[in-house]
Amino acid sequence: MSLNKYEVFTSVMETGSLTKAGELLGLTQSAVSHAIASLEQEFGLTLMIRGRSGISLTSNGERLYGYMREILRVNEQMKQEVDAIKGIESGTVNLGTFTSVSTQWLPGILKQFQDAYPNIEIKLFDGYYDDIEEWVSAGKVDLGFVSMPTATSFDLLPLKKDRMLLLVPSDHPLAAREIVQVSELVEETFIMPTIGCDNDIQRILKEYKLQPKIKYELGDDHAIIAMVQNGLGISILPEMILFRLPANICVIPLEGAHYRTIGIGAPSMANLSPAAQRFLACVEDWVRNCALPS
User: Fold this and answer.
1) What gap in Å lies between CA 82 and CA 74, rounded to an integer?
2) β-pair partners for 25
3) What does the pLDDT read at residue 203?
4) Angle formed by the axes of helices 274-289 and 106-116, nearest 10°
5) C-alpha triplet 65, 70, 76: angle, nearest 5°
6) Can you tell me the distance from the alpha carbon of 252 to that of 77, in angstroms, rounded to the nearest whole number?
7) Is the pLDDT of residue 205 over 90?
8) Phi, psi for residue 16 in degrees, rounded to 5
C-alpha cells in the first residue's frame, strides 16, 4: 500500500477537486485519477463518486477516509521524530485560524517561529469558528485557534481574554454613554456576524434572554464596522478587531464582564508532532509577551 495514494486521496477530498489536488501535490489530473483508481483497485472497493455536483465519498470511502488521514498524520510525526533524533528541525504544521487572529497575531507569531525554525512549514486554513472546530475534531489541522468554550470536544489551551464591546455610530443616542447595559439593546437594530462566527455575541444575548432585531448578517468584521459607520445598525465585536476605527464610530463597554476567550485546540495535545509542539510553544510565548492587552 502506498502512502502517496493516501495523500492523493485525502487531498482530493479536502479540496473537492482532482485538479486542485493535483496543483497542491504537483501532479497532473491524469496522475491523480490514476492514483485514485489504483487505490480503489488495491482495496477492491469504490471509495469516491464523481458527479455533476462534485466529488463525494461512498459509504466505504467514509469508513476508510479517517484511517488514511491518521496513517498520514502518524507517518509525518515519525518523520519529524527521525529528524529530531538527527538534530534537524523539520515538518509541517496544519493550522486553523480566523480573521482577527490572522490579522493581529499570526504575522508576529509566524515571524518569530520561522526565525527559530526555518525548515518547519506552516499551512494555514482560514475559516469561521465552527469550521475550525470541525477541522480540529476531524484531524484536518494539527492546531486550531478557537473561541472558548467550543461546541465540540477536543483538547484546549486558553490563551487570552478579549473584551466584547458595543459599536454605535457617533450620532446614536447611546454614543455619549460611558457604559451600556445589554438589556438596553432590545429595541436596537443589530448587524450580526453570520452563523459560525457569532458564538461570542449569541452567548451574551442568551445570558440576557435578548432577541435582537437582526437586519443584516455578515461574515466580515470590517464590513460590519462599515455598516455601523453608515448608521445601518449597531453591533457587538471583540476588542481585538477594533483598531484604526473611523472617527464617526463609538466603542462603548457593556455592563458586566463580557469576553471571548481565545484558545488553541488540538485533537490531542499529548500526541502533537514535534513540529506542532514547537509551534504551540511559540504561540504561548508570543501571546504572553507580545499580544496587546485587552
Assistant:
1) 12
2) none
3) 85
4) 130
5) 130
6) 47
7) no
8) 75, 15
Flag whether pLDDT at 51 surpasses 90: no
Residue 292: which H helix or E strand, with range?
none
Q: Which of 169, 14, 194, 11 has its CA nearest to residue 99?
A: 194
In one-letter notation, the amino acid at residue 122 is I
Strands 235-238 and 155-169: antiparallel
Locate 7 and state its grid cell. 495523500
C-alpha cell belonging to residue 24:
497542491
Residue 17 backbone phi and psi in degrees, to 5: -155, 135
Burial of 78 (0-12, 13-18, 19+ CB in 10 A): exposed
Rounded to the nearest 10 degrees, how much is the dihedral formed by the CA atoms of 155, 133, 101, 123?
90
Structural contact between residues 270 and 157, judged by C-beta atoms closer than 8 angstroms: no
Burial classification of residue 109, based on how many CB atoms lie within 10 Å of its CB (0-12 exposed, 13-18 middle, 19 or more buried): buried
Q: Which residues contact 39 (CB under 8 A, 6 or more apart)?
A: 2, 5, 6, 8, 9, 47
Read off the pTM: 0.73
What pLDDT score was predicted for residue 1?
46
Task: Measure CA 77 to chain center.
Answer: 22
Buried b (16+ CB within 10 A) or exposed e, 41-77: eeeeeebbeeeeeebebeeebeebbeebbeebbeebb
* Joined grid coordinates for residue 1: 500500500
Residue 249 in contact with residue 225, Cβ under 8 Å? yes
β-pair partners for 192 = 217
Q: What is the pLDDT of residue 257?
A: 80
Those residues whose C-beta lies under 8 Å from the C-beta of residue 178, and which sit 6 or more positions away, are: 252, 253
Q: What is the pLDDT of residues 224-249, one digit of tens each?
A: 999 999 999 999 999 998 888 888 99
* Burial classification of residue 189, based on how many CB atoms lie within 10 Å of its CB (0-12 exposed, 13-18 middle, 19 or more buried): middle
Q: How many residues does the chain have?
A: 294
